[in-house]
Amino acid sequence: MPLNPARHDPAWQGRLGIALVAVVLLKPLLWATEFKPGLLFEPGALRVMGGFLRSFVPPAHGAAFLGQVARETWATVAMATAGVTLALLLAVPLTLLGTRALSVSALRGRMAALPFAVRQLVRLLLIVLRSVPELVWALVFVRVVGLGPAAGVLAIALTYAGMLGKVYAEILESGDAQVTQTLLRNGAGRLQAFAYGLLPQNAAELTSYTVYRWECAIRSSVVLGFVGAGGLGQLMDGSLKMFAGGEVLTMLVIFVGLVALADRASAALRRGLG
User: Fold this and answer.
1) Residues 105, 111 contacting (CB under 8 angstroms)
2) DSSP structural state of residue 223
3) Fewest Cβ atoms closer than 10 Å to its Cβ: which of 2, 58, 101, 145?
4) Any residues with CB less than 8 A from the CB of 222 and at least 6 apart, and which?
5) What pLDDT shows up at residue 205?
6) C-alpha to C-alpha distance for 202 and 252, rounded to whole angstroms
7) Which residues contact 16 (CB under 8 A, 6 or more apart)?
8) pLDDT digits (tens, 9 = 90+) for 102-126
9) What is the DSSP code string of 110-164?
10) Using CA atoms, how far apart are residues 189 and 137, in angstroms rounded to an integer?
11) Which residue, among 252, 248, 246, 249, has the nearest Cα to 238 in the 3D structure?
12) SS3 content of the chain, % helix, strand, coil (to 5)
């Protein structure tokens, strides 16, 4: 029976071929990682997981514990916010130095040797900053400044500066550079060209990505707590070691609420700038 042209995808053969190639390539990767999902459903594993999940009920709700959780939650949000703020202070100037659209010498077609070298060094620095996970930076700073949120702030600042700088530069270079080039040709400085040329047309995308990174920083700050960077993660680490499942569940619920609030804030900002 011939296929109905209205319901037939003319590219199905190519897509099927890509899917088969993906499966063939994925199989050795699963072997390399010893991925065996069947182990999760063995009787012993199910018994251990069931016992662990049962320890979560009921959630802890004592007044003293909730007060401690509130303090550590505030420390977590403060760590993420301060870390992203410091990352912005690092990322913005690096972005201005590394963006080709703001190069005066590039107006003639080919960037001069010195600006080109500076741009490559800036991009290399951004690669180094974002290549080192914030968890590694936190382990380093815990030894330098001691236990507490300060190590987490510095770790988030360095890693996220690399991430923000890279994406900011890509966003700015992907936009329409005609206004910026006109400003530069007429004697405007780099900051003026950025403020009146690139920033207005890319403000919404830059803000959206920054708020998304702040949301990611909240999640990272919890993970950093497990290596002594303070906040909700350090409190959760102690509860896990004491097998206090009810306390862990309470903190997980609060953490989910934090991420949900960050998501709503991001959506509100996008609507305001849209």
Assistant:
1) yes
2) H
3) 2
4) 76, 231, 232, 233, 236, 255
5) 86
6) 35
7) none
8) 776 666 667 777 877 888 899 999 9
9) S--HHHHHHHHHHHHHHHHHHHS-HHHHHHHHHHHH-SSHHHHHHHHHHHHHHHH
10) 36
11) 248
12) 85, 0, 15
Cα–Cα distance for residue pair 66/73, rounded to 1 Å: 10
Whether 273 shows a pLDDT value over 70: the answer reads: no
Measured CA to CA, the distance from residue 199 to residue 188 in angstroms comes to 15
Pairwise CA distance, residues 262 & 269, whole Å: 11
Higher pLDDT among residues 89 and 50, named by residue: 89
Residue type, 59: P
* Domains in the chain: ranges and CATH: 63-273 (1.10.3720.10)
Instruction: Give the position of tokens 């209205």.
Output: 6
In angstroms, the Cα distances linking 27 to 14, 18, 40, 41 are: 20, 14, 19, 21
Which tokens hold the place of 270? 């996008």
